[in-house]
Amino acid sequence: MRVLILCVLVFFGANVVAQQTPLPMLPLPQQVEMKGNAFELVNNTTLTWYGPADAFSMELLATVLDQESGIRLVRAEGKRDADFQFMLASPDTDEGSFLKGLKRFQQEEAYRLSISKNRVLVHAKTQRGLFYGVQSIKQLLRSYKTQQALPGMEIIDYPDFEVRGMMDDISRGPVPTPAYMRQQIDRMAEMKINLLTYYTEHVVETEKHGAFAPDNGALTIAEWRQIADYARQHHIDLVGNFQSFGHFDKILSHPDYAHLGESGMLLSPAFDESYELLDDIYSEMIPAFHSDYFHINSDETFDLGTGASKSRVDSLGKSVVYAEHINRIYDIITKKDKKVMMWGDIILNDITILDYLPEDILPITWGYDIMESYTERITPFQERGYNPLISTGILNSYTMIPDFEVAKGNIGGFMAEGKRLGALGMLNTVWDDGGSAMFSRDWYGVAYAAEQSWNSDTTETRYNERFNTVAYGNAGSNISKAINELNKLAAIKSTEKMYEAVLWQQVIPDSGATLWTNIEDWERVHYHMLKADSLLKATNPDRYAEDLEYIQFTIDQYAFLAASRPALVEIARSYTSAHNLQQAQGSPSEVRSFLVHAYRLLNDVITELLQLKGRNQQLWLQENRSYALDLVEARYDDQLSDLYEVEANLKHALSEFDSDKMLPLAASLRLDIRETENWYFRGWLMIEPVPNPKGANNPGFDALEATGGLDETFPKVTQEFFYDEVKYRWKRVNTPVFAKVNLHELFEDTDQSLMHAFAHIDSPDDRRVRLLVGSSDGVDVYLNGDLVHEQFGGREFTLDEDEMWLDLKKGRNHLMLRLAHDSGPWSFSVTMPDVNFLSSKNRYRIVEE
Length: 849
Hints:
Blueprint: E1 12-13, H1 14-20, E2 31-40, E3 46-50, H2 55-69, E4 72-75, E5 86-87, H3 104-109, E6 111-116, E7 119-124, H4 127-143, E8 149-157, E9 163-169, H5 178-190, E10 195-199, E11 204-205, E12 219-220, H6 221-233, E13 237-241, H7 249-252, H8 272-285, E14 293-297, H9 310-316, H10 318-334, E15 339-343, H11 345-349, E16 362-366, H12 379-382, E17 389-393, H13 404-421, E18 425-430, H14 443-454, H15 463-472, H16 478-487, E19 515-517, H17 522-537, H18 546-583, H19 588-623, H20 629-658, E20 673-675, E21 683-686, E22 690-691, E23 720-723, E24 726-729, E25 731-734, E26 741-742, H21 743-746, E27 753-763, E28 767-775, E29 778-783, E30 786-791, E31 802-808, E32 811-821, E33 827-831, E34 837-840, E35 843-846
Parallel strand pairs: 3-4, 3-5, 5-7, 9-10, 9-18, 10-13, 11-12, 13-14, 14-15, 15-16, 16-17, 17-18, 19-20, 27-35
Antiparallel strand pairs: 1-2, 2-8, 6-7, 6-8, 21-25, 21-27, 22-27, 23-24, 26-33, 27-32, 28-31, 28-33, 29-30, 29-32, 34-35
Helix pairs in contact: 2-4, 5-6, 8-10, 9-10, 13-14, 15-16, 16-17, 16-18, 17-18, 18-19, 19-20
């Protein structure tokens, strides 16, 4: 059915208007002219609407009118009255002029909105365009309800991208409840997002293969069908999604399917049964979805050729075998009347794969960092006749809250380049690697991506204010400011780019061991959290107030870290003072006061951590099913267990003291916690230990010869090589201890071994820096392929034992450590004590103070 407006508009760019006054809409419309003669919203009145609108759109409008203005909306019968209020009218030639010059997909989603003294007109070519016009009216009604009038305006609006998508990962952590999935659809539809997919590995329950589905976390086919119907009603294309090659580990971990694995991560293409499994799952999933596409993922297939497919890969090459797998899946899916959507990372590594694939496959090219150029991620596909979706990211993985500044830079840059190159559309992603992220804290990034995909030329600077008003009905920018205050932690060393590993970092040493820590930044963290807390508490949202609970929870998590980390140092210091004073035969009452002070502080830390655990549970279940919650709670419990043990130790020490006995050393109570002024490298790329019969002595061989040797190996994550017929793969490792990387805990079978650890150091200029290294047994250090330090032979670990100088070049530098070991504990430490640096995984960036 076609619906179109009845007036001629004069308009100018929305960007100019928005600089004068922040129009409370998101996405910001393409073209706006503000006028006088406001449309009054008088309470307890009845408005009429005319035209062939679908009942669902008008029900949405009626609901928001009633909620925001106390106005009843009814459909008029018969001929239109001259004093109509809301109207949707049939088209004629003149009325269609605003569609001229627009692309076909833009015409299908365009709308024209006119607000004047006694009427509100929405005109569109399609019901989808009409629906978007109604969504814009909803935003305006909410934003101007206190004025009891809608300002006069003329809007012509249409999207930049045909596909404007969102992806939520529901397989690496929380699985949302059906109610929350409907809320996601409601809110995304208001932002004019038109595609949604849920990344799915094992959390789908089919009749034929229900064994691998978690009882408390999988969606049934009936549930998928209900969600798809709900999305369709909101003009969102819900794309079915099932990981079909790599990242198959959760299914392969089930004994019924383990034999189908190429490795622990990859479904093997060597078995016909693999395709029978996929066919069975597709046969049940696909009918539940209305979309023309089905997303097979098939990314990061690192293990291809390492198992049953090795002989075929050796004969034909990985690219051909990869293409063969995709083609077999393609045949299964197209016979079920769907098209294939898939990640494009493997193809981008070898673009000739496209020569073997059908022309109607839709690749998705992704990159989640801020880059100088995104062209090379788009044009290789276009040059071979494919027009990809571009995929951006909110950087949710392993974080306590996303770094939205990086996300905005990535989204804005990729969108702009995609528009320039004529990309089909975008898919913004929320990945949940790490397993503890909850979606309610992500809406700031979701809304930004929605705006950029609809109107990528938006350059106005008042997104924060509009986001607050449109999303929450909260005038001003306090919610956005609180989020931005949190994001300032990305530049603080203690909070390490806001990775959640900081929350689970080991803070209690093992019995008899020493733990070093640096607490100098926690006062700054405390300051920022006080500001964020004050900003958030000064808000009074009209809707979706529960989002603020999740932001507040993150603020409180960091407030706990800022208080507890110095408190633990103070606890250790107080106990050591008590011990030393007793040894010096000091005042017993003063000794006891030190002990009681330490016990009280420790009890406060335990109490606050217990409260955080309880709130995490409440917020999780408010949004998600119970599945995977136990994995997160186990992290709390591990840290609580350490604290409880120290509490018991302290209580026992108090009892012994009250019995006139001598206090034991702090190390025996797990309280040998010491401050250091240095900051240490905790993130590395590593491989499994390489056998070395010579132990701590110089092994006399180079285990990295296959990749160029120690002087030319600058590895990337997941890069593989063979040594002595054994395959090794570089992977990221982040130690839970602040100063010391404990290899004995990270790896098995470490006796008589070599370890290789690799990191990047980015320097703003050429400079000479001091490096301190500690190690159990032997170590040699390479910078940019040159040997700069060598020490072999057995020794105990000592922090900062070896000193050397590094001549860094401007830009990226490569640091490689080779560590040799005999037996027993095996650790090392690395720091640059004289420079200020920030870390991100295995990357270290020198910054000026």
